[in-house]
From TrEMBL, chains A, B, C, D:
Keyword tags: Pyridoxal phosphate
Similarity comment: family membership: Belongs to the threonine aldolase family.
Source species of the chain: Paracoccus contaminans
Name of the protein described by the UniProt record: Low specificity L-threonine aldolase
Gene Ontology biological-process annotations: amino acid metabolic process
Length: 343, 343, 343, 343
């Protein structure tokens, strides 16, 4: 009963096979190989963005931090949800890579900002002179850290506020595939058509070994990004092994199949929880379920093999705590049934 | 005839097999898995350093930059050879990660500093007051960028100078296996026994997919390093796939077998070049051969399939240029023979 | 009617005279002169901290940013009030100088945090592993940005929470003299006796030309601070002219006399406003008065010569806005009367 | 006999008087006052650069570091002489403020680079790809750290090389007035007409209290510089006191009169030294004299009241060492005679 994280799953067999296949003979290093060109091309097609600049890296924090450093001046302010991964879980990486930028936290139910809340937060920082720093970037996580998603209209609404304030827009898409699967929107509709400048697209949580892509829809936005990636140590020398993952992950829509599987597992789990009187806290729209349970029940489930993170939430008390249940491409009906049986 | 870089080789079959084997079921993420513990333990054994702090990352620049940032204060100066990779090829990453540190370049024949040259360079920066910055770290590349190696006595001699000046010592060991194979010294003798504080140990050039280890021989030196690695985006979530590479690479001495193969190939190539009247420029001690050739010959060899980097060197002229020939774990006698035949 | 800022006042005649007097002959540069030693000694006496490390700089942002960089690791989090100057008005300087640290904003009425609010905010950032960054520093502004003050008990209460969480404590004392004058507490009681590690003590707003002091009560906390100050360009070469200001400002308690004058002027202004039906928004405890007025009245007052900053506050509307009235060592009864007459 | 540094001199009476005069009444803070506008205008006139962007700060390191940070990307390389102050004496400030840039040191007799040496050094860093960083800025010190000067042709020759390599040009003009006085060239001829983008113009060593100006001849180069200055803590709140210094220093050519005085004193001192058999090491062109003397003589002179820095130079030995004698606006014929008498 592994609901601890989509990072604890392994690598999809087709992706592992692609790594082995890519290991045939030598290839130019540092991304000058044919697979890398192919992967970038494939991403451009999928995003309907023939000019997009595409960069592959190995980790989500690397992807987020580098993308934000590219969009934000050192004196800039990055607006994000108060539960955004870039705020809670990256040890300050993005602000550091941007040269000492800052994050402006925005509230919102279950991981989602509203345009109104964003506008209010921006208004907290009037732009009078150099004391004020620069309101520079909006970063939206999609799917969010609370397992909800922004559909295309929601992304567009937030982008409109950001652009109206002269800001660029970044999407932390560590679970972007889940958002695409959940909304049915096209990748383009969830990004550049809605006003997004750069996407950190996550593969690692969704079947890859270590693969994230940074996509700048307007290549002018990517100027000198290669230097940033290099000096941060995020340019793989045997780059074909990033590209091979990307190609296999995207091939035949595997990335979305895996995301749909994870989302469906979460929905099934949520339904089961509701039936057993434990309705999830947040809307279950992607691959995460948050549920408040008697602490004794949580302990019993763990004793029976459950892996799940504690996720303290407002309303928890001495007797009842909240846990996060993450489904992934490997989650089975048996795991779900076993968990529901224990609860 | 692929002599372009040891980065253009693929992954050794035993390492690729280990990745596949590691992909069985789920595992805790972020290095809390059993393979990671095993890999760290194995490195401690090999280095006879039971307390060493071991961190795995995916790239050599990440490994160098993070290790140096750990050893060097922001106002510090890192002494290195003027051809050191951290100076020439990392786009300023190490100095940046160290908070704006600087490199003090030291000359020396064929990539090697002498203790005398190092001492003279340190003397260029008297330590009177806060204007002067801090002479903080010595970074030795071993094997060097010119294919030479430092034996244990040479490392110890440099460390003595550095320690006498109150400095810490780092080894850029992107090709450390080649240095061990070339010198016959133990890993411990080439590092902590000689006075080295931290080693960036490279696997990627020597049969791995993406694997480098940062080893701090005194764990007190590693305090808070985990934060550095995390915020720089160098903590892999599916960390077992770093560890699996390490274990397979070290298993049964594979790492040294591969290095010996590469070194032997370079020696064979050098001998052939000498026989054909093209004596290598620098002593061939590891897996790199630098040779000055008529430019017409270089062009002909490339037309025949040679991959090798131009490596401009003092003494080149209009008619004759220098190239770098790198051998690796995949280099075959046929490739060498073919190259010698073309020349 | 200059209530725009205490920065728009000039230099007290005794301080200007001290500058002229210091200009007699030559003196060692970079703080090795006798006046500097004298100023440091005088501050140690006043703070009853014979071992304190004292550094003079020219600006408040320099003082804050350097002090916080000293206390906070790059992966650290600095807790401060959401209206703290380091958050709103320093263009990200402190977080940048600390190597990419972040600020965690804490709410509280009229610029003051409560221990409860601080504890709750710290609890938002559990310290599990390297993803979480480090809860590192509490920064208290005293007097606050809303013209209120923390008395010794209030400082101690906040420090207790911070220290309980393993954090260091900084005071932004741009208006520290006003806080001392307002509370009647000793400088020691408001700082190290309450648990404060470092103070940025402001002279510029209180009669100096350009003078701030960074005081570390435990000199061990100041290790290598001189390098930070130097590389940031905050070590004056003609350092005696910082020290001369400090000595004259402290001489005979001038610093507190000037602060008392400013506080009394604010109290008089507040009383007048109350009498005229315009009660200040925030408690008037130091040298700032915030008042909501009909916008037409504000415009009329400005037309009549009022200088005061707009200070948008919750509750403002189309008809009524809030302004900030800052009194200083130069504020006269005539200015106050003139303003009250206009209103 | 104060030949220790031009920083140990005091403030010229006319400048001190201007500070007192500026202290009349209140003035807008942060550079929005009339004196600041006047000072910027005066500098634009003197440099015949009506569009130049002018920023005042209080220290030379602040001025250099901020100017270079503005011109150099984080992955950039700043070429400078190996004895440049930014390399030897600023504790890494410029490279840090530029986001982790690096300095590429260039040799040259007595503090001067030649175009050939600069071109050779640039050629050390071919610009192939992102590994290589960016050759970004040339920084020329004028007058140099060895008391020599670059005339307009020399500056133009270096600028031509830099511009040919796509680089911007900065002048560290801590002693720029001395260079103008020595060469007789116009300020414009020594800067923008020769190809210079930004000048750090020093007043502190030349009669001011704490005053440096950063001048960008093309205002487009200064975009967002105000944010850099602010967050580094280099925007004075009582900014009129920077501007008042500038105005008095420039008024009636005082800045050049003072520089001429210092230069003449150095020439007189050099002549005296030559007459007494102690010919200066380097050409004496500005206000510094370097002379090798028997160590016993140096000791005797110090015992007699000489203040001068040891300045170790190639050729020193056990018996003879080199000292630096700096003349300033306060140097008197008596001081020179007294020194010569002792020697």
């Amino acid at each position: 009963m592994n609901f601890g994280s989509d990072n604890s799953s392994g690598v999809h067999p087709r992706i592992m096979a692609a790594l082995a296949a890519a290991n045939d003979g030598s290839a130019p290093s540092y991304g000058r190989d044919a697979l890398t060109e192919g992967a970038a091309g494939r991403l451009r097609e999928i995003f309907e963005a023939p000019d997009a600049a595409v960069f592959l890296v190995g980790t989500g924090t690397g992807s987020n931090a580098l993308a934000l450093a590219q969009l934000c001046p050192p004196w800039g302010r990055i607006f994000c949800h108060e539960t955004a991964h870039i705020e809670t879980s990256e040890s300050g990486g993005p602000a550091w890579m941007a040269g000492g930028a800052s994050l402006a936290l925005t509230p919102g139910a279950w991981g989602r900002m509203t345009p109104q809340a964003l506008a209010a937060r921006i208004a907290d920082y009037p732009q009078v002179d150099e004391h004020d720093g620069r309101n520079a970037v909006l970063s939206i996580t999609n799917a969010t850290e609370w397992g909800t998603v922004h559909d295309a209209a929601s992304v567009a609404g937030l982008c409109a506020v950001a652009r109206g304030a002269g800001m660029a827009v970044h999407v932390d898409g560590a679970r972007f595939a889940n958002a695409v699967a959940a909304t049915g929107a096209s990748p383009a509709a969830l990004t550049w058509r809605a006003g997004v400048d750069a996407l950190s697209l996550g593969g690692t949580k969704n079947g890859c070994l270590a693969l994230e892509a940074v996509v700048f829809f307007d290549p002018a936005r990517a100027q000198d990004f290669a230097f940033r990636r290099m000096r941060a140590g995020h340019l793989w020398s045997k780059h074909r092994f990033l590209a091979a993952q990307a190609l296999a992950w995207l091939e035949g829509g595997l990335w979305l199949d895996l995301a749909r599987h994870a989302n469906a597992a979460a929905a099934e789990l949520a339904a089961g929880l509701r039936n057993s009187g434990h309705a999830p806290l947040a809307p279950v729209e992607a691959n995460e379920v948050f549920v408040r349970l008697p602490r004794a029940v949580i302990a019993r489930a763990r004793a029976a093999g459950l892996r799940a993170a504690d996720w303290p939430a407002a309303g928890d008390d001495e007797d009842r705590g909240t846990i996060r249940l993450v489904t992934g491409w490997t989650t089975t009906a048996e795991e779900i049934a076993a968990l529901l049986a224990v609860l």
